[in-house]
Design a protein that fits this description.
Elements (H helix, E strand, L loop, with lengths): L33 E3 L4 E15 L2 E8 L7 E4 L4 E8 L8 E3 L21 E7 L7 E6 L6 H6 L4 E5 L13 E10 L1 E2 L2 E2 L9 E4 L6 E4 L4 E8 L6 E5 L4 E6 L2 E9 L2 E3 L4 E7 L4 E7 L2 E2 L6 E2 L2 E8 L25 E9 L6 E3 L11 E4 L2 E9 L5 E5 L5 E5 L2 E2 L8 E4 L4 E8 L6 E7 L2 H5 L3 E7 L2
Length: 456
């Protein structure tokens, strides 16, 4: 088998606050490099190693993939096979998880129980079903107890399943950007570990406040991913609104207008942006407070959007996309999952227990469609994520939610709850995997549980 080096594709994003964290001389936005599949296969080697890399225009030492804080974006089609050779050149155990993909969780596929020791190599083979939803996904390490540190260092990248807009002739050929949001804490020339959000440099594709350019009236597709470890990103774009096409890799039934996008840790948004008149606008992330037991951190300007040049006639956006099945009439069972934490914030629990990879916490029969109530008994925000499948959010703190599509991450309010409907109907997901809070510091301190989907 031949193992190819990587390529890339990237785009910027901006988030709210009042501080401009950008460098004195602003950079033009750059999409990440791209590695694309050919003849039904994508093959590459990812080497996890500590070394010098560039973050926000500064040279720092960090643990990254292939020497870059922004590793390649992988672009595939439904039905492809992804073969990744993971070389572990760091001093601790690591692994590889394809976040959001509805693929097998066993053997050398998307198996979070498969670990690679220091100095070791592991070949992964992930077969993407021919029916897989098109959209934005991402990859990152998932070794329990070390996920937070490794993702904080920059070990995360995007994966795109092509075809999101293929069914809509009026939307084909749009300029597309990938905006990957990461935060870095730097001290003494290296990535360091401080409290969540403390002195965090917010970057878009590893850049500080890059400039994204559109022509007046132009429509672009922005694929925005929160691929950092722990921070929330409430995003706004001055003078504009977003038209939400897909959430967490799942195309919606209609375009949803949004003044603000809230990207929880691990979440993705794919949106259309139609440029206003000539001018300069800020993409911002706002100040955020995760609760009295949690963290407060400042927002900033993530990117500058420059609208200039010859105007174009804005395209008419479709009122509807494609139908999405409402799962509310298909529920076969119900259960409640409780997130909680110790008073000192050092230990986190799912149903009163910390994570044990040798224990199976939940068993589900293939074909079940279950309503889960996710309850947060702590004084800080958590977000709920389940591997291998998606869900439909039906209630938040008792308030019914409008149905427009699926997602794989949802925010769970402090001292509150959400209800979701999860389909365990795809035979490809038979096996054992996990669900957890995607604030990786919380996951590493115990807020994760195992689930097994079986045929009997």
């Amino acid at each position: 088998m031949k193992w190819r080096a990587a390529g890339l594709l990237v785009l910027p994003l901006a988030v709210g606050g009042v501080r401009d964290a950008g460098p004195a001389r602003r950079e033009a936005f750059r999409d990440p490099a791209v590695v694309a599949s050919h003849d039904g296969a994508l093959e590459l080697t990812l080497t996890a190693a500590r070394g010098s890399t560039e973050v926000g225009g500064r040279r720092v030492f960090a643990q990254v993939y292939n020497g870059s804080y922004l590793p390649p974006t992988l672009r595939v089609r439904a039905g492809d096979v992804v073969r990744v050779r993971l070389v572990n050149a760091i001093h601790e155990t690591t692994s590889l998880h394809m976040h959001g993909l509805a693929v097998s969780p066993v053997r050398n596929s998307d198996n979070v129980f498969l670990h690679v020791s220091p100095g070791g190599t592991q070949d992964y083979e992930i077969r993407i079903p021919a029916t897989h939803p098109p959209g934005l996904y991402w990859y990152h390490p998932h070794p329990h107890g070390r996920s937070d540190e490794q993702v904080r260092n920059g070990m995360s990248g995007a994966l795109i399943v092509e075809g999101l807009l293929d069914s809509f002739p009026e939307l084909r050929g749009l300029t597309e950007h990938v905006l990957l949001l990461k935060d870095a804490q730097i001290g003494d020339g290296q990535i360091v570990h401080r409290g969540i959000g403390d002195d965090a440099m917010r970057t878009v594709n590893g850049m500080l406040n890059p400039t994204i350019t559109l022509r007046p009236g132009e429509t672009q597709l922005w694929r925005i991913g929160n691929v950092g470890a722990d921070l929330y990103y409430p995003l706004t774009l001055d003078g504009h609104r977003f038209s939400e096409v897909a959430r967490d890799g799942h195309r919606l039934a209609r375009l949803v207008p949004k003044q603000q996008l809230l990207l929880e840790p691990g979440a993705r948004e794919e949106v259309l942006v139609q440029a206003a008149g000539p001018g300069t606008y800020a993409l911002r992330t706002a100040d955020f407070n995760t609760g009295p037991q949690g963290n407060r951190y400042s927002g900033t300007v993530l990117a500058t959007v420059r609208v200039a040049g010859a105007p174009v006639t804005p395209i008419a956006l479709p009122e509807k996309l494609l139908p999405v099945a409402d799962l509310r009439g298909a529920v076969t069972g119900r259960r409640t999952i409780v997130f909680s934490e110790s008073a000192d914030g050092d230990t986190f629990f799912v149903d009163g227990r910390t994570f044990d990879p040798g224990r199976t916490d939940t068993r589900v029969k293939l074909g079940a469609v279950e309503e889960w109530t996710i309850r947060n008994e702590s004084g800080e925000l958590h977000d709920f994520h389940i591997h291998q499948t998606h869900f439909q959010v039906t209630e938040v703190n008792g308030a019914p939610q409008a149905f427009d599509g699926y997602q794989d991450i949802v925010n769970v309010p402090l001292h509150g709850e959400v209800k979701v409907i999860i389909p365990f109907t795809d035979p490809v997901i038979v096996g054992r995997f996990v669900y957890h809070c995607h604030l990786l510091a919380h996951e590493d301190k115990g807020m994760m549980a195992t689930i097994e989907v079986g045929r009997h």
